[in-house]
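Table 4 source record.
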Amino acid sequence: MARKDDTMPDPMRKRELLYGPKVAGEDPTGLGDRFRGAGRLAEALEFYIRAGDRVRAQGLLQQAVEQGDAFLVERAGAAFPDLVDPDLRRRAARAAEGAGKWRYAATLYEKAGDAELAAQVRARFAPAVEPLDT
């Protein structure tokens, strides 16, 4: 059984901090750093977005590219569009391929405008990227 980490906000408090009215003394950047330190990158990114901290979001984005994480790349791009371009998506797609994340690779190639590469990934690894309802 996992130990409870009392230094992190519980889910209800986290929701309040992310989506509720801003409160004096709130430190979304610090919370983002704590989540990132715990390996919880998606939550860290949400706090960096809340803080408007482009520098930390960009650092986390580079980590997401290295891991081939399409979700984090696209979430960062939605919040800070100028941080994500087709070349960054291609780098992330190659990393995703290297990590065996075929769906992420295909998605990133598509978003980069490389439909042919996306199709090649799907063709090579069709069983891994077939729709779940087949």
